[in-house]
């Protein structure tokens, strides 16, 4: 009876970590979605809400860290259970960073909307955000279901996000060259686009952590990990704009 009681309590502790990760994931998704919506619609009130909401993710990460350390000290887990706990720590850190990136986008809303930019730029940002959020949602679904057969597809989409970001980088650079009055707003939009691209990277990190939790093996390292914006020059942007 005592053994069963301990086992049940242990299972509840592991379930708590998984549920807390799910809650953080949903919160991070909403923050990014609302940050981009605030940017597109020049909604300063929504931007302030996103900035305030980041506290919940910070607290969530602290709770998971504290709980995980306590479980490790009390239960001395091995194999699958230890990977589950370490994985929760790593995933919560990625989700906390996703929240920070959403908050950083929200902080730039006022600066961007002082000089209204062409709708095409916001459509590009929205498309990039939709792709990154799809990536994040799918990888959180994989974490909940442990369906690691889907991880390869989730991981490969990171290359699409990088390509879209590079294209948007080139477009923003072109707008800055065409009219110096666009420089301030477009610079802020560049930072927003980079923040969104980084969300895709964190989603890919989570995919790799889930794979490790389930299989006990690391995923192969050969995946594209960087955008190509460092190859974009003024001459190349001018050529592309013609």
Brief digest:
The longest helix has 40 residues, at 2-41.
Protein architecture, described:
The protein has 242 residues and is mainly alpha-helical. It has a single domain (2-241), classed as Up-down Bundle (Methane Monooxygenase Hydroxylase, Chain G, domain 1), CATH 1.20.58.220. Helix content is 83%, strand content 0%. The protein contains eight helices and no strands. The protein has helices at 2-41, 44-75, 79-107, 109-113, 119-145, 151-178, 183-215, 234-241. It is elongated. The mean pLDDT is 88.
The H-level CATH homologous superfamily, spelled out, is Phosphate transport system protein phou homolog 2, domain 2
CATH fold group: Methane Monooxygenase Hydroxylase, Chain G, domain 1
Count of folded domains: 1
Number of strands: 0
Rg value: 20 Å
Beta content comes to under 5%
CATH class wording: Mainly Alpha
Q: Helix and strand layout, with pairings?
A:
Blueprint (H helix, E strand, L loop, with lengths): L1 H40 L2 H32 L3 H29 L1 H5 L5 H27 L5 H28 L4 H33 L18 H8 L1
Helix pairs in contact: 1-2, 1-3, 1-5, 2-3, 3-7, 5-6, 5-7, 6-7, 6-8
Protein traits:
single chain; 242 residues; mainly alpha; Methane Monooxygenase Hydroxylase, Chain G, domain 1; 83% helix
């Amino acid at each position: 009876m005592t053994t069963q009681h301990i086992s049940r309590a242990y299972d509840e502790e592991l379930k708590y970590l998984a549920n807390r990760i799910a809650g953080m994931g949903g919160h991070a998704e909403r923050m990014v979605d609302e940050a981009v919506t605030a940017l597109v619609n020049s909604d300063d009130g929504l931007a302030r809400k996103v900035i305030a909401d980041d506290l919940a993710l910070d607290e969530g990460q602290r709770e998971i860290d504290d709980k995980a350390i306590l479980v490790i000290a009390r239960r001395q887990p091995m194999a699958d259970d230890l990977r589950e706990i370490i994985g929760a720590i790593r995933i919560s850190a990625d989700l906390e960073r996703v929240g920070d990136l959403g908050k950083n986008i929200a902080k730039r809303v006022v600066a961007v909307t002082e000089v209204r930019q062409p709708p095409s730029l916001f459509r590009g940002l929205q498309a990039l955000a939709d792709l990154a959020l799809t990536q994040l949602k799918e990888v959180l679904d994989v974490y909940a279901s442990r369906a690691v057969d889907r991880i390869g597809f989730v991981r490969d989409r990171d290359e699409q996000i990088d390509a879209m970001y590079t294209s948007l980088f080139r477009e923003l650079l072109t707008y800055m060259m065409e009219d110096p009055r666009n420089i301030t707003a477009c610079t802020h939009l560049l930072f927003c686009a980079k923040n969104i691209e980084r969300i895709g990277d964190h989603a890919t990190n989570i995919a790799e952590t889930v794979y490790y939790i389930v299989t006990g093996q690391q995923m192969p390292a050969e995946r594209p990990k960087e955008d190509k914006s460092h190859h974009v020059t003024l001459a190349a942007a001018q050529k592309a704009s013609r």
